[in-house]
Each structure stands twice: as structure tokens, then as C-alpha cells.
Amino acid sequence: MNEFELREKIKKLEKQLEQYKLEEVGIYTPKHILNTKSEFRKAIRENLKEQRYYSHAKNLFDVKGNIPSILIQHFNFECSELIKKLNGYNLESVRLKIKNYANKLISVCNEQEITIKTQRLFCLKIEQAELENDYILFQAEEKWKKQEQARKIAEQRKADKEWFDRLRELEEQLSVSVFNGDTEQTNELQQEIEKTRHLLRDRKAGWIYIISNEDMLYGYYKIGTTRRVNPLVRIDELSDASHAFKFKVHAFIYSEDCFALEAQLHKRFAYCRVNKENTHKEFFEVDLDKLQQILKDEFGIDIEMNDNIYDDNAQLRELYNFAYDK
Q1: β-bridge partners, 226
Q2: Which of 21, 37, 121, 224 is deepest in the core (most CB within 10 A)?
Q3: What is the DSSP string of 92-120?
């Protein structure tokens, strides 16, 4: 084995060790990447079909008589009861108990001088547990996607209503300004109206926010997006939802395509994602100065990181006045 092969083998072992540690605490990476319920059901049916074949004494044991059949029935029953208890996060425990049942069966067979032809049935039981567990995780993911889609639709509707109300308000102000003959104010309002119409038409424009909370570990930041007229409204909603303290706002970044920019940022900082087992979460462990430098060097976004915009009156006035700096 040369040096390159040795390094690759060490990397592989380190990865396996990391995965094992994650599984010990209930963080499980699916082994069967299937895309639909029907695919999972088909895979489970095929697994059970093969199990039925090896559950016949003549296919598993090299002996005649009824005792082996009873042993297989007991083993299958115990494994079935275990698999029923899977919840998406206890696979390692179930897998270990299946192995223990298999070892007990092998031990009993050795005492009875019964020869086991193959251990395929034991492997199939573990594979079934993995498939069933992956299916549970898949269903949870599908449910989360539906909930997230509903949340995004609701958020979009809120944003559209706010921008429509803003447009109506500006048009009323414009009518008064034209009536009063205030040319300067009329020009400003017309520009603001055009900008608001643009934001109503193009439903991609919005804000990227970088926030933190006192009830999270130091150095954890949430990078998300909102299209609300005043992004602080969305931050206040997030604060009320499930946190003991109000979020601190470190930066707002306006983008013509905030969703694309958010995806790029999440990809760039994937290495420091806090929730590695759930890529839908938006929390990252990163130094703010480093984040600011990466934004400038790699994304061309030169923005100052604020300790908390809520404490900065100038920033607040800019936001409340809808003064977008493009």
C-alpha cells in the first residue's frame, strides 16, 4: 500500500468513525436515497420477499426437523417488534439489538449442533430496519417540505399585501403633491412608486438578513431572507415564534434576487452549518468579521456588520423610510 492509498484509507476510516459517533446520538444519514413513497414500499416488499425465502428452515439450516423453524419464528418475531419501535432516531439501538438476537440464534444453533448455511437473513433484517427508518425520515422530510412551502406562500402573500398597500399610499401622496404643485416631492414620489411597482412585479427582490439571539451559542448566526416592506417586521415575528429573547440584527442586504443570493450564501458557508443533519436550517457558526470579508471579496457586497440595528437610530430610520440602497 503506497502513501496515497494509506491516506485515502485513513480518510475513509475517519469518515466512518464520524458517522458512527453521529448515529450514536441519533443523527442518522439515510443509506437508501429513494425519491417517492412507492420506491420505498417496493424496496421493503422485495426485502421481505427475500426474507420469506430464508425463513424456511431448509434454506437457512443444514438440518431436518421442527426445532429450526421454531427458532426462526422466534427470531423474526423479536426483530419485527424491534422494527415497529423505529422513530427515525433510534436506528443504531435497533440495529444493535437485531445483531444481538442473531448472535443468540447462532449460539443456540451451535449448542444444538445445527449448522447455519448463510447469514443472509440477519443482513436482510438490518437492511429492513434501515429501509423502514429511512422511510420514516423521508415522510418527515416530505411533511416538513409541505409545511415550509405553506409558510413561504403565506410569507409571500404578506409581502405582496404590504407592497400593494405601500403603492396605494404613495399614489395618494402623489395626488396631493401634484395638486399642491410640489415638483420636487412629485418627482421623488414617482421614483418611489416605480420602485414599488418593480418590487410587486418581480417577486424575487428582497432582503438577506444576518441575525443572532442570546438564547443561542455565541458565534451562531441565522442567514435568511424576506421580501417584507420593512424587514424588521419579519425579524420581530421570528423573535416571537420560539425564542426567549429578541433577535439581534447584524446586517440587512438588499438583492434583486434574494432567494438566489441566500442559496449561494448557504452553499458557501455549508462547512460551518450548525444543523448538519438538517440542511433546511439556516444557522451557521462563523465569525462576523470573516463573514463580512467573504461577502466583500467573493460576492462584491461591501456592508458593515452592526452589533444590533435595533440600537442604531440611523439604520432604523433608513429602514422605516423604505430607503433601499441598491
Answers
A1: 207
A2: 121
A3: HHHHHHHHHHHHHHHHHHHHTTPPB--SH
